[in-house]
Amino acid sequence: MPHLTYSIDDAIATLVLSNPPQNRIDAQMATELAEALEAIGNSDARAVLIRAEGPDFSFGGDILDWPDADVRELRTLFERYMQVFNQLERLPLPVIAAVHGLCFGGGLELALRADVIFATETARFGHPEQTLGIVTLLGGIYRVAERAGRARASEWALTSEQVPASVMAEAGVINRVVADDDLLTEATAFARKAAKGPTRAYAAHKALLRAWAVGGISAADEAMFDIAMPLFETDDVKAGLASAVNASKAGLPRPAVDFQGR
What we know:
Elements: E1 4-9, E2 12-17, H1 27-41, E3 47-52, H2 71-89, E4 95-99, E5 102-104, H3 105-111, E6 116-120, E7 124-126, H4 140-148, H5 150-159, E8 163-164, H6 165-171, E9 176-178, H7 183-195, H8 199-228, H9 235-250
């Protein structure tokens, strides 16, 4: 049975964790995620929505085989997870996560690869790794620190507490908290809106944020024009600028542009 499925419809790629009830992340799910990302990269998708089946988003890694594996085997496994998760994070498309129930460990680290995170009011987030004596192996602690600051990231990693969605939103880790029954409606509506936007510009913004995350403002400034100037050759910018200029000359409000993602 598949542990992850995907579909592409109306320019939205939907990834579904489908290994309930806990949606544990294992080698099979990583392989299926890699295959899905390759298909998305070769498709006309302009936004990605990731969600889960069952009562919870994900409990994280499937630890059942870890005690019997040697360190080399575990390193190979975790490096594979990291590679595939980072491939999702670096997609040149807006990625939206819809989180419900419990989102722990590797599940949280997967959600953190999204650009925008929606969560239900009853969702809970956490790093259970310290209860095993290990660290957030897929970059969870520093990705939380990037969003919420070092103090919060340290506290949550050290305590393994279950953090309510409202607290995560207040700290800036997630973007929006919605009623449980409204999660898919709200997240899908956001994905549809993103899919109709200037896709190339979204990709450029993601690249600039990566430059900033690695080297700070000076690194992002250094990368700015190499990333930004090719946008002026895209059909979307040509249409957007022409529309704005024509409206300005006519003294009219700027109209919405039907961006094509090119």
